[in-house]
Amino acid sequence: MMLDEGEVIPTTTEELTHYSMLEEKGCLKYEVGEVLLEQVVKDFDTQLLFINKGITLAETENKFGIVGFFKKIIYFYETSNFCDTKLSRSRNF
Question: What is the pTM of this model?
Answer without folding.
Answer: 0.66
